[in-house]
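Thread: magnesium ion complex, take 2
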Amino acid sequence: MAKCDCEPKRSAGLADNFGCDSFNLATMREWLSGKVYKAIKATIQDGTPLDPAIAEEIADAMKSWAISKGATHFTHWFQPLTGTTAEKHDSFLTPDFQGGVIAQFSGKELIQGEPDASSFPSGGLRATFEARGYTAWDPTSHAFVFNAHTSRAVLCIPTVFCGYHGEALDVKTPLLRSQAALVKQLKRVGTLFNVPETHRPYATLGSEQEYFLIDRKLYESRPDIIMTGRTLFGRRPARHQQMEDHYFGRIKKRVLEFMADVDNRLWRLGVPSKTRHNEVSPAQFEIAPVFEEQNLAVDHNLVIMHTLQDLAPEHGFQCLLHEKPFAGVNGSGKHNNWSIVGTDGKNWFTPGETPHENAKFLFMLASVLKAIDSSAAIIRASVASAANDHRLGANEAPPAIMSVYLGEQLEDIISQIETGGAKTSKKGGRIEIGVSTLPSLPRDVTDRNRTSPFAFTGNKFEFRAVGSSQSCAEPNTALNLAMAAALDEMLNAIEKKLPAARKKDTEGHSKEFHAVLQDVLQDTVAKHKRIIFDGDGYSPDWKKEAAKRKLPNLETTPEALKTIIEPATIALYSKYGVLTEREARSRYEVYLHTWGQIVNMEGGCALDLSRTFIIPAALEMEKILAKSLESAEHFGRDDESRRDAYTRVAELVEELYRSVNNLETVLNDNNGSLVVTAMLELRKVVDQLEDLVPDKIWPFPCYGEMFFTF
Ligand code: ADP
Ligand code: MG
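Output below.
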């Protein structure tokens, strides 16, 4: 048989290049001596403190590796309270004082950096005389070379960012601290349930990232998007997302080429990008990686966001990560899939196969209910931002009210626990803690409710209130902290009830142990079941019901942020060593200030654009209609529809002036909440005008063009 000449060329893709631009374990094994590799691996996987003596060899290897990737510079890559990442590049260059240079990178430079931090937000944590900030290497996340083999190649070293006295000035430090608090409690759970301790426990994260793409040329004609990341004006076109044809639809060629480029780049960086698809809104898409250890996954999500934004222009697109770039269609979120790997290396949110494993699973489940109920406001506050305010509570995103969705079967089991633990389950069989196995839970049964902010999806919880442009660090810090506190209290309750001699379930399923466990679970469920909600989270009835249950409903950022400085929150943060009181208060200052700045900046942009683009266009339209009316009358036609058209526009122009003046007044008063309302009022007028003014006079590309023309 003749050999087919269309045999595909072996693509240098996936497996070959995966992680080639990342200084991950595989790269380290290649570039480090056996001894140093073993030591750094123990730090990464088992949390063994880093031996500073090995930093020199690691730095040297990292430098040689990065140079082989074309890097000329390195940077400590950190995450200040600006919501994004920061970097200051230094070249490897050192003069040899004989007219030449050598490439150098010391262990000290790897471990610590000292960027001038005076311009980063600190919320009063740092007086100007101690403006120094320190970055310190986080060896548990992989260094990587961005833009390898280009003139822009730079070695990025993930770091924490602290003040002179060790105060956290970033979002990574509290995340790592919350992980330590959680690990401590998970080890106790392991001991209590007599689980073999083969692994250091850790949280996992898989973040599904939503984004929009619009044509770069259209983007360049939308000063509102350029300035604020979203449209401040714009009317939803007749065709939008109602045809439901975009979600999971066939991916257009240009978009697919972009996605392929993104995947390739991410794979090279060691980011396990897995899923890509069209989302609900026109021009909206999603990318999701395979889950990883939480701290690494948070960094990888940031890398995904950078990569999307970097590569979009190369394909003639602009990538919008804003939570609500377009009014009237779905906004973008980030589903934060969160789970826990226990001391046996297994997922502890997976219902087990033995009654004993099930007892642990139910204990973990009850802890989650307690965690979310007790810390609902803190978790809500962790995703508060001016941009996310447009989304939470709007009709496509989970509401600002925290609740947990468990699915019918688990809810049934939980309610049985409350009433005594030995009743008949819906699917038949008796559930008795430590005695019964649970019915196996098919995944699709648990993943139906898309309106819940916190849904159990088989072996993980999906927190859906995270905004698309946010870092996952803070929501995960809040989840870890809430869970650590809940576990701590439940473990204490169990230990208190068990005789001193028997602090663990040594026999695997002792009657006494299970009776105590049953008691504590029963108590916990009774106290916290109000957080369970399986209904429609978007419905107005839920708001009423939630109010009856006394669940917090913090609809706006300023309301939500107040939680941070409540005494109970401050006590919780400090008890588990996540934030000191000073750090918590400084964060409150920074976030509230940022919210006000964004709102005022957007208000200012809306004002400018109204005056310089929209009013002139509206006046021109008014003039055209006036002229038409005048000439019609001149020729003796008293045409009512012409008069109506003129009157309609003339009235809107008057309203436009009024709204613009009102916005200016509230901006001068510096009242953020009033600015938000004034902008909405102005937008209403402008969007009506857009409907009446022809495209060639209207100064901006319309939604329809941005949605459908690529
Ligand atoms: P969907 O939620 O869209 O149905 P999946 O549930 O399959 O999709 O996966 C969504 C995300 O959840 C992926 O990023 C996946 O890696 C992640 N995920 C799956 N298992 C876990 C886990 N144990 N911990 C954290 N994330 C997980
Ligand atoms: Mg999902």
